[in-house]
Write a structure and sequence with these properties.
The complex is a heterodimer. By secondary structure, chain A is an alpha/beta fold. Chain A has helices spanning 9-30, 43-56, 73-85, 96-108, 116-138, 149-154, 175-185, 189-193, 206-210, 214-226, 231-238, 242-254; strands at 34-38, 60-64, 89-92, 141-143. The model of chain A has no long low-confidence stretch (mean pLDDT 94). Chain B contains 7 helices and 14 strands. In chain B, the strands form 3 sheets. Chain B has a 6-stranded mixed β-sheet with strand order 5-4-3-2-1-14, with helices on one face. A 6-stranded mixed β-sheet of chain B has the order 6-7-8-9-12-13, covered by helices on one side. In chain B, strands 10-11 form a two-stranded antiparallel sheet. The model of chain B has no long low-confidence stretch (mean pLDDT 96). Classes of the chains: A alpha/beta, B alpha/beta.
C-alpha cells in the first residue's frame, strides 16, 4: 500500500496557490481589514505568516509573544528572522506579567488534579489568544490559526488557546507536509530543522511528549484517516506494534471535542450542533 | 454540415445562496460569449444557487427559478444558446440538480443529474431526487447531450447519449479540489471521450466557498481524448473554443467500438448487474 504523504513539486506549487487564495477569500468574505498571526518562531506559524503575507500584504500583523526567560531566545530570533525576511509588520509583546498573575492564582488553588502541570502550561496559549483577539477586535481583524492536521487530529493544542482562531489555512496539511511547503516558500532551514515544541515549559519537545516522531505519527494518521484503515490494518501495513497505533488512534478519538462546538443537549428538531447544517459562507 | 461548434466555457465562481450575484455573473458571461461569437455558452453545475453542502437549497429554490427565467430572457435578447446548472422543482415539489438547455429565448430541454453524490463533504441525496432520463437535444449546431458531474464517473450515461446520436457531450460540474482530484477527472473525461469517440466540453466551477476550493480547469476533449483547450485552475475564466464535431464521424469509419456494441453483451451486463444487486 502506498503511504503517499510527500507532496510532489507541482503539488507544492498548487497547494501554495490554493492556501494563499483561500486566505484572501476568507479575508474578503468576513470583511475585515487586518489579519493577525501569532508568530512563535516555529515552523507552523512561520509558514502561515509567509503565506498570509503573500495573501494580505501589509494588512498582516504578526504578534511575537514570548515568555521571557522561559521561551528560548532562539525562537524569538527565528520569529524576527521571518518577519524581516518576508517584510512583515510585527509587535513583540512579552507575556510574563500576565503569567505571573495566573501563577499566583494557581498556587492558591489546592493542587490535587493529576493534570496540574498542564493547567498552568495551558494558560500561556490562552493568554496569547486573548492578546490576538484584543488586536483583532481593535483593528477590525481576524485571527489566522497555525494548527496543522497532525496537531488537530491528535488534539495536540490548547482548547480556547492556540486552537481558538477564526480560520485554519494549514489545517489540512500533515506536519511532514508543513516541512515540505515551508521549504518550498523559503522558510529558513534552521526553523524547519529544529525540534518542534509547543513551548509549554522549558526544554519541552513535541516528539518526546507524544512518544513518537512526527514521521511515524504522520504515517499512522495517514493510514487511519486518509486511507480509512482500521488499527489492525494500519499495524500490518506499517509493520508497527499494536500499542503504537492504538496510542495514536486513542488520541484521535479522545480529542474529537476539540474539533467541534461543545455538545448541546438536543430538545428541538433543529439542535444547533447536530441538525442545523449551514456553512460559514452563505447569503 | 457544420464542422465546428463555437462553445463558450463560462467558468464562473458562484456564491452559495447568493442568487443575485450569481445571476449577474451568468448574464455578464453570456454577453461576453455573444461578443466573442460563441454559438452556445455553458455554465457549471448549480450556477444559479452555488454549490456547497448545507440547507441553503431548501429555501432558495424559488428564487433560483426566477433567476433562471431572467437568464432565459437575457439569452433570448442576445440570440444565444446556453446551458445553465440550476435547481429544478417538479409538480410534487421535489428538487433536482438540473441543467437547462436554453435557445431562441426559451427552455428547449432539461436534464436532471442521475448520479447524486453522497460521500464525505457531499450530501446531495438529502436535497435532490435523482433523474433517470438521458435525452439528447436537437440544436442548430447538432445533437447535444448533457451530463452533470458524477454522471461522467459512470460509463453508462455517456454511453446512452452516444447511442442516441449525441455529437458532443457537455459536462457541467462543481468539483471541489482535493489531492489527486484534477488527475482523476482528467482520466475520466479522457476515457469517456475515447470510449464513445465523441468530443466533450467540461465546465467546472471556480473560486472558494467555506474553505473549499473549486478547481476550475474547464476543458474541451477531442474525440481522440486529447485536451484541445484547458482554462485556468481555481480562478474564474472564460474562453470560446471551437469543438470539432465531425472528427468523430471520420474516426468511426474505421473505429467500430460504438457501431459494433453487441446487444446480447449489453443484456449479459444487465443480467450480471441483477445478480450483483440480489440479496444474498
Amino acid at each position: 500500500m502506498d503511504i503517499d504523504i510527500y507532496l510532489r513539486d507541482d503539488e507544492l506549487k498548487l497547494y501554495r496557490y490554493i492556501i494563499v487564495n483561500s486566505i484572501k477569500d476568507r479575508f474578503e468574505k468576513v470583511n475585515v481589514s487586518r489579519g493577525i498571526v501569532a508568530l512563535s518562531g516555529g515552523v507552523d506559524s512561520s509558514l502561515v505568516a509567509a503565506l498570509s503575507k503573500a495573501a494580505l500584504g501589509d494588512r498582516l500583523l504578526c504578534l511575537i509573544m514570548p515568555e521571557e526567560g522561559v521561551s528560548p531566545e532562539e525562537d524569538t530570533n527565528h520569529a524576527l528572522e521571518v518577519v524581516r525576511k518576508f517584510n512583515i509588520n510585527y509587535r513583540i509583546i512579552p507575556i510574563n506579567g500576565v503569567i505571573d498573575w495566573f501563577t499566583k492564582l494557581h498556587g492558591e488553588i489546592k493542587a490535587s488534579a493529576k493534570n496540574e502541570k498542564f493547567a498552568i502550561a495551558n494558560v500561556k496559549p490562552r493568554i496569547r489568544m486573548i492578546i490576538n483577539y484584543l488586536y483583532a477586535n481593535t483593528l477590525n481583524g481576524f485571527v489566522i490559526g497555525t494548527s496543522n492536521k497532525t496537531e488537530l487530529l491528535l488534539g495536540y493544542g490548547t482548547k480556547y488557546g492556540d486552537i481558538a482562531v477564526d480560520f485554519y489555512p494549514i489545517g489540512d496539511l500533515y506536519k511532514t507536509q508543513v516541512w515540505q511547503l515551508s521549504d518550498y516558500v523559503g522558510i529558513p532551514t534552521e526553523i524547519i530543522r529544529k525540534k518542534p515544541s509547543a513551548g509549554l515549559w522549558a526544554g519541552q519537545t513535541d516528539e518526546e511528549e507524544l512518544g513518537h516522531t512526527y514521521y511515524e505519527i504522520d504515517r499512522i494518521l495517514y493510514c487511519l484517516v486518509e486511507l480509512e484503515l482500521s488499527v489492525r490494518e494500519t499495524c500490518k501495513v506499517l509493520a508497527l506494534p499494536r500499542e503504537a497505533v492504538s496510542d495514536i488512534y486513542k488520541r484521535v478519538i479522545n480529542s474529537e471535542h476539540k474539533r467541534k462546538i461543545p455538545t448541546i443537549t438536543r430538545l428541538s428538531h433543529m439542535c444547533l450542533d447536530k441538525d442545523w447544517r449551514y456553512p460559514a459562507d452563505r447569503h | 454540415m457544420k464542422e465546428f461548434v463555437k462553445v463558450g466555457l463560462a467558468q464562473i465562481s458562484a456564491r452559495l445562496g447568493h442568487i443575485e450575484y450569481n445571476t449577474s455573473q451568468i448574464v455578464e458571461y453570456m454577453q461576453k460569449a455573444k461578443e466573442e461569437d460563441a454559438e452556445i455558452v455553458v455554465f457549471p453545475e448549480l450556477s444559479t444557487i452555488g454549490y456547497g453542502s448545507g440547507d441553503v437549497y431548501l429555501d432558495k429554490v424559488d428564487e433560483n427559478l426566477e433567476a433562471l427565467s431572467r437568464i432565459v430572457s437575457e439569452a433570448g435578447k442576445l440570440n444565444l444558446w446556453a446551458i445553465v446548472g440550476y435547481v429544478e422543482k417538479d409538480l410534487r415539489g421535489f428538487f433536482y440538480n438540473s441543467a437547462a438547455l436554453i435557445g431562441e429565448g426559451e427552455i428547449k430541454g432539461k436534464f436532471a443529474k442521475t448520479q447524486l453524490v453522497n460521500y464525505r463533504l457531499f450530501d446531495e441525496m438529502k436535497y435532490f431526487k435523482p433523474g433517470s432520463l438521458l435525452p439528447v437535444f436537437e440544436t442548430p449546431f447538432g445533437k447535444v447531450g448533457i451530463l452533470i458531474s458524477e454522471d461522467v464517473w459512470f460509463p453508462e450515461a455517456a454511453r446512452a447519449l452516444t447511442f442516441r446520436g449525441a455529437e458532443v457531450i457537455f459536462v457541467l460540474s462543481a468539483s471541489p479540489f482535493d489531492r489527486g482530484k484534477i488527475e482523476i477527472w482528467d482520466d475520466f473525461l479522457k476515457v469517456r471521450a475515447l470510449d464513445n469517440i465523441l468530443p466533450l466540453a467540461f465546465v467546472n466551477m471556480s473560486g472558494v466557498q467555506d474553505g473549499v476550493t473549486y478547481w476550475g480547469g474547464s476543458a474541451v476533449y477531442s474525440a481522440t481524448g486529447k485536451i484541445v483547450k484547458r482554462l485556468k485552475l481555481i480562478e474564474s475564466d472564460f474562453e470560446v473554443v471551437p469543438v470539432d464535431i465531425e472528427e468523430s464521424k471520420r474516426l468511426r469509419r474505421r473505429d467500430i467500438r460504438v457501431r459494433e456494441v453487441r446487444r446480447d453483451i449489453l443484456e449479459e451486463v444487465l443480467k450480471a448487474f441483477d445478480e450483483m444487486t440480489k440479496w444474498i
